[in-house]
Specification:
mainly alpha, Arc Repressor Mutant, subunit A, Four Helix Bundle (Hemerythrin (Met), subunit A), 3 strands, globular
Length: 235
């Protein structure tokens, strides 16, 4: 019987695979690797100057997240985008994220409240300037940090894992479509209302505000996608 080694150290191969995964994830989320495009492992191996084994491991990790699809005899493909997929991601977020927030509100103390309000302050004071990749990247990081702070005390690891997977799938749509589109909506008031309701332990109100926030964001993305993919609603 094999006994798990709880003190196992990270191997160089694992470190390289994680670095490759991070780079590929970035390129997929930002549309550098286009939705629906084939991933040629030999070309990627040469362009990234890495071995095939850690590259394959990294790609398989991305398959597990839903950002890459694998089909026998056909290889790997960046997961296509569609209105149907965006709607599914949003529907799952609406079911799971408010529940994670409720759990976090039940378990969170003063440190959690400080974390939420600190993340809100940073987000509200981070500029989001159309056409400026650096400011957009900073805002995305602050936005994700705020939403993670809200559910930081959720005591369900599987739920948190699912949350991160759904956020990555959702971020791909936002990063691809909003980088070329002027920002139409100011979300400072929305974020502030969610944070205040959360730290005041107004659970029903906080959950409803978060649901509305996700719904409005999805509606804006849906409109952009439908405009570029005329038949996307049937995909």
């Amino acid at each position: 019987m094999l006994v798990p080694n709880t003190n196992r150290q990270t191997t160089p191969k694992q470190t390289i695979a994680a670095q490759i995964e991070a780079r590929l994830r970035h390129d997929i989320l930002h549309g550098v690797l286009a939705p629906g495009s084939k991933l040629n492992l030999d070309r990627l191996r040469e362009s990234m100057a890495v071995g095939l084994s850690p590259l394959r491991e990294a790609v398989n990790r991305l398959v597990a997240t839903g950002l890459v699809e694998s089909e026998a005899m056909k290889g790997y493909t960046v997961t296509p985008i569609s209105v149907a997929n965006l709607d599914e991601v949003a529907a799952l977020r609406i079911e799971l994220e408010p529940y994670a927030l409720r759990r976090s509100m039940e378990n969170g103390g003063l440190d959690w409240e400080a974390g939420v309000m600190g993340a809100l302050h940073r987000l509200n004071h981070t500029d989001r300037i159309h056409g400026d990749p650096a400011s957009l990247s900073d805002w995305e990081a602050a936005n994700n940090a705020f939403h993670e702070a809200l559910i930081a005390r959720c005591d369900m690891p599987l739920l948190i894992k699912m949350y991160h997977q759904l956020v990555a799938l959702n971020d791909r749509y936002r990063l691809i479509y909003l980088k070329a589109t002027p920002i139409q909506r100011d979300v400072i008031d929305e974020h502030t209302a969610i944070a205040n309701a959360a730290v005041d332990r107004r659970a029903d109100e906080a959950a409803a505000l978060l649901t509305g926030h996700i719904t409005r964001s999805t509606r804006n993305l849906r409109r952009l996608i439908a405009a570029e993919l005329p038949d996307a609603t049937s995909i």
